[in-house]
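Help needed: design a sequence for this.
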């Protein structure tokens, strides 16, 4: 991901700007090389945290992803006494609030890392506890055009045959609204103009529309 650092910063800052006003607890920012989340107070702080860190080889992405998902699943069915008191309008009486997880990645992970087990486990838990479709959304925002990386993310997006759709993938220079809402809104999820679903050889650098993110020089 080191070669995409500038573009990662642009996408991160934009998403943080759009999302922050709607999260009563503030954003949780995770890095694959660290176990604990950071709590940036504003989008500029997100960029600062990114600048302070350097990519180191291929991290154990599956372990970090699994920890986030399993931590969320562990709250299913539990009573929300404190959270309900702090945020009564956005917190259900039991279980966690809806989750939107944005994963900025090139898909180039350890060969044994595919995240399929974690996604299947999450869907099984959602069904068991009666949560509706789109209660959880995982948006994989893809940087670069690595063939294997694209295949991995497309598998998570649309090739698992799950009863509940929780994952979506969008190129980093694609439609901003699909990045933001594609994992939780069928209209954006099914927008064929915003992704390269059927052509693994498409060059996303030529993708352009009114909602595309362009990196600053």
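Sure. Designed sequence:
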């Amino acid at each position: 991901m080191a070669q995409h650092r500038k573009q990662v910063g642009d996408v991160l800052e934009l998403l943080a700007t759009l999302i922050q006003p709607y999260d009563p607890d503030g954003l949780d920012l995770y890095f694959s090389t660290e176990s604990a989340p950071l709590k940036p107070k504003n989008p500029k702080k997100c960029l600062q945290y990114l600048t302070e860190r350097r990519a180191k080889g291929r991290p154990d992405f599956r372990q970090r992803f699994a920890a986030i998902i399993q931590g969320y699943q562990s709250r299913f069915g539990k009573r929300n006494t404190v959270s309900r008191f702090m945020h009564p309008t956005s917190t259900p009486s039991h279980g966690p609030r809806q989750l939107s997880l944005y994963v900025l990645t090139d898909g180039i992970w350890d060969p044994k890392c595919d995240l399929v087990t974690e996604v299947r486990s999450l869907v099984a838990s959602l069904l068991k506890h009666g949560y509706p479709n789109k209660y959880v959304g995982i948006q994989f925002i893809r940087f670069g055009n690595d063939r294997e990386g694209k295949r991995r993310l497309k598998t998570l997006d649309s090739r698992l045959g799950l009863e509940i759709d929780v994952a979506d993938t969008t190129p980093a220079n694609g439609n901003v609204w699909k990045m933001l809402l594609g994992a939780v809104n069928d209209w954006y999820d099914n927008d064929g103009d915003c992704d390269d679903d059927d052509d693994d050889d498409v060059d996303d650098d030529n993708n352009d529309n009114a909602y595309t993110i362009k990196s600053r020089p």
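Confidence is low (pLDDT under 50) at residues 197-203, 205-210.
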